[in-house]
Design brief:
This protein has 4 helices and 2 strands. With about 110 residues, it is mostly helical.
Length: about 110
């Protein structure tokens, strides 16, 4: 007897868009919004458009390349784990053993 229900196989997979995974998509969106705001500010300030466009296209291209490399290198949660690991202390220093001798056994 055949099942009438379909199985959704992509439930726990991370969101992916053209090679960018998870939080890198949000970072790309935020970077592009900042580039749009930078364009508006530079254009309103009277800077020549032939200077603005190559500058912003270069910055946008660098943003995409860097985020793609980070996404491929660290994956979905790897960059957050990388930063968390570097915030840990290298060693702990205690001046007495009283902390350990007063622990309750149980």
């Amino acid at each position: 007897m055949a099942s009438i229900y379909q199985i959704n196989k992509g439930v726990n997979k991370p969101i992916e868009f053209k090679g960018l995974k998870a939080q890198y998509i949000a970072w790309l969106a935020a970077g592009l919004v900042l580039l749009l705001i930078a364009f508006a500010i530079l254009y309103i300030s009277g800077l020549n458009i032939s200077i603005i466009l190559p500058l912003l296209f270069g910055t946008g291209t660098a943003l995409i390349i860097i985020l793609t490399k980070l996404s491929h290198k660290y994956g979905e949660h790897g960059l957050m784990k990388y930063f968390a690991k570097h915030r840990l202390p290298h060693y702990l220093r205690f001046k007495s053993r009283r902390l350990f001798t007063q622990l309750k056994k149980g």
